[in-house]
Amino acid sequence: MNDESTSVAPVIRPGYFHRLAIACGAGQQMDSWLRNVLGARPLTSRIRQVHGLPMHQPGAGASDESGAVSEMLWLGGIPVALLTATDGDGPLGRYVARYGTGLHSVAWTVEDLWAAETLLRRRGVRITGVDVPGRHFFMHPADTSGLLVEWSDTDFADDPRDGGALPEVPAPLVDVRSVAWLTVTVRDARAAAELLASLMEATAVRGNPVGDPEHEDTVDLRIGDVVVRLVSPRSTRSRYAAAVEQHGERLHAMCLRVDDLDGTLATLEREGLHVTAREGCRAWTDPAATLGMPLEWTGRRGRG
């Protein structure tokens, strides 16, 4: 794969990033934590089918199929779906029991859902979780280097990226400027990048801070309007080695960009959110202090 294309023409041209799903258990108060600490805002825009058909309101209630309640939020310039398990024996409840609170999946909008599904099947990608009323489906993560990807032909009628208004909220503990990247732990970052770029349009991103190449290989891909970081440990000294060993390839963490990394880390420590490590303009907080969710931090444009 080079910076612009892959040798195999990609199947899908992603539109806007549709949502990052965060899975959590009942009673964790993840909603209030995301709002009070990171400044997440309610995303109340109605959802519509991209060709104009009406859709349900976001976060309208519980899904009997997944045993979860969903709520849409806006965080760091992207939509976030907070999925709270209501049934410990349901699919989401089992997921949280196995992996704990954390990132669940990603989704992009496409213009033609039927064509996307058909072409992916022709490439040998297994399709799962087809939801006709919800107008979405997933690619099986075993065929995408562990990244659970949803495709939907729906979008937000009043998308903040197109000028849609967001409610005013009290000043949070941390002023998050953007989601810098989403970290996926894989066994071979180069092979995973080639695979993903063969399925969806993606371009390599240069210039973000990365770990020591002796201990881990890193590839950043821009897919639609977000950056997906693929990291494969080369030694046990990589901080991602344990994640791959314990859970295999999967969506692992979210990196948040702030204007003042030094000041942000000092604030987090003061409020009991322990910073476990820092390498230049990157830092990591203890998941135990962030309700189990792995978070990474970086300065504005990669500066501290």
Describe the structure in your own words:
By secondary structure, the protein is an alpha+beta fold. The chain folds into 2 domains: 146 residues, 2,3-Dihydroxybiphenyl 1,2-Dioxygenase, domain 1 (Roll), CATH 3.10.180; 127 residues, 2,3-Dihydroxybiphenyl 1,2-Dioxygenase, domain 1, CATH 3.10.180. 18% of the residues lie in helices and 35% in strands. A hairpin with a 4-residue loop joins β8 and β9. The longest helix is centred in the middle third of the chain and has 11 residues.
Q: What characteristics describe this protein?
A:
2,3-Dihydroxybiphenyl 1,2-Dioxygenase, domain 1, nine-stranded mixed β-sheet, alpha+beta, 2 domains, single chain
Topology diagram in text:
Layout: E1 17-24, H1 30-38, E2 41-42, E3 47-49, E4 62-63, E5 68-75, E6 78-85, H2 91-99, E7 102-109, H3 113-122, E8 127-131, E9 136-139, E10 149-152, E11 154-156, E12 176-185, H4 189-199, E13 203-204, E14 216-223, E15 226-233, H5 241-247, E16 250-258, H6 261-270, E17 275-279, E18 282-285, E19 295-299
**How is the main sheet built?**
9 strands, mixed
Could you tell me the radius of gyration in angstroms? 18 Å
Average pLDDT taken over every residue: 92
Q: Structural class given helices, strands, pairing?
A: alpha+beta
Number of helices: 6
Q: In CATH's first tier, which class of the largest domain applies?
A: Alpha Beta
The strand count comes to 19
This entry's quaternary arrangement is single chain
CATH superfamily of the largest domain: 2,3-Dihydroxybiphenyl 1,2-Dioxygenase, domain 1
CATH fold-type name of the largest domain: 2,3-Dihydroxybiphenyl 1,2-Dioxygenase, domain 1
Which CATH-level-2 architecture of the largest domain? Answer: Roll
Uncertain residue segments: none
How many domains would you count in the coordinates?
Answer: 2
Fraction in helix: 10-25%
